Amino acid sequence: MSRHEATYWVRFDEATPGGLLRTSGLLRYAQDVAWRHSEALGFDRPWYAERRLAWLVRGAELEVAGSIPMGTSLAVSTHVVGYRKVWARRRAEFRPPDGSLLAWVLTDWVLIDARGRPTRVPEAIASNFPAPAPVEPLLRVDLPPAPDGAARRAFQVRPQELDPMDHVNNAVYLDWLEESILAAAGDASGGIDSVPRRYRLEYLAAAAPKASVQALTWRDQGWAHRLTGADGAELLRARVEDAPSLPLRPDPAR
Question: In this structure, are residues 105 and 97 in contact, taking their beta carbons and an 8 Å threshold?
Fold first, then answer.
């Protein structure tokens, strides 16, 4: 199994007013270390550009098991835990110098072609990132219709929220989710600073530059969240579990 590790230092601008790493920082680190892993094995961005291929995040599940203060030095590891025809699942783990597991992220990446359609993962990639096929399907988040009392937010995509693919980066949706929870919770934190806590996000469509979006957020065994575009099409479904004790999702590669 191919595993890659890099060290990240939690910067001042990545921390909340409480001095802790923003949850979206975990997705940003996971995304960055995945690309560093790919580049280390010869699959850099020019390699993908030449073949007109790109990876798109389809789903993410992450757990924050412990607080991560500003200034923490994190060893962030990544490896591919499995494939299906057009997608791959990665696991990233976040550990301070004492080796304890502070957080983990599972990310489902779909490979798309120049038309934006899913395409089969090339054998060259699969052979360099060996992993068993995942027994689970792509991450899904089931949500009931939002109740009448759901908190509503309407806002517009800002330029700084776009990535080099010219759409909203997957980590930004997590920022929007937590902003919506804070708005719905009023003066309370809504549990977004409690540990452990777990997030499940299903990305349904990309928010384009200057797009108008609407968030609906409500209590439902934790928090439920739905993000839609101006045309009513769903962009994101998400859940946050803030139970006091969560079962550990084991790493299938261990």
Answer: no
Q: Which is nearest to 66 in space by CA: 117, 116, 103?
A: 103
Helix (H, G, I), strand (E, B), or coil: what is residue 20? strand
Task: Tell me the C-alpha distance between 45 and 41, whole Å.
Answer: 12
Q: 135: which DSSP letter?
A: S
* Token pair of 225 as six digits: 């969240």
Tokens of 109: 């990446």
Q: Give the architecture-level CATH label for domain 3-241.
A: Roll (3.10)
pLDDT at 244 over 80: no
DSSP calls for 20-41 = BB-HHHHHHHHHHHHHHHHHHT
Tell me the C-alpha distance between 154 and 77, whole Å. 36
User: Could you tell me the CA-to-CA distances from 16 to 11, 19, 92, 224, 240 in Å, in that order?
Assistant: 11, 5, 22, 22, 19
Residue 165, SS3? coil
Whole-number Å distance between alpha carbons of 175 and 26: 11
pLDDT, tens digit (0-9, with 9 covering 90-100), for 215-233: 999 999 899 999 999 999 9
Q: Measured in Å, how far apart are the chain's first and last C-alpha atoms?
A: 10
Determine the 3-state secondary structure of 206 from DSSP. coil
Tokens of 98: 């004492």
Lookup: tokens for 219: 């209590």
3-state secondary structure of 70: coil
The token duo for 202 is 């299903």
Using alpha carbons, select from 223, 143, 142, 141 the residue that is nearest to residue 182.
223
